[in-house]
Amino acid sequence: MECNYCGKEVEKSKGKMLVQSSGKRLFFCSGKCQKNWEKNRSHSYPDKEE
Ligand SMILES: [Zn+2]
Fold first, then answer.
1. Distance from the CA of 34 to the center of ligand 1, in angstroms?
2. Using CA atoms, how far apart are residues 2 and 43, in angstroms rounded to an integer?
3. Is the pLDDT confidence value at 8 over 70?
């Protein structure tokens, strides 16, 4: 799979997986990419927190 943030190939054993409440799975090559993605998401969806 590819990192949902930077698009790099992610190794299953090394990458980070995030499961959204909708059931969609997101993969990140590193915690850094996950953090950046979360930042961007909260930027795009300011009302997302429930
Ligand atoms: Zn990445």
1. 8
2. 22
3. yes
Topology annotation, domain 1-50: Ribosomal Protein L24e; Chain: T; (2.30.170)
The encoded tokens of residue 17 equal 């997986």
Distance, CA of 27 to CA of 34 (rounded, Å): 8
CA 46–ligand 1 middle distance (angstroms): 23
Q: How far is CA 22 from the centre of its chain?
A: 14
How many residues would you count in the chain?
A: 50
Regarding pTM above 0.85, the answer is: no
24 CB burial (10 A radius; 0-12, 13-18, 19+): exposed
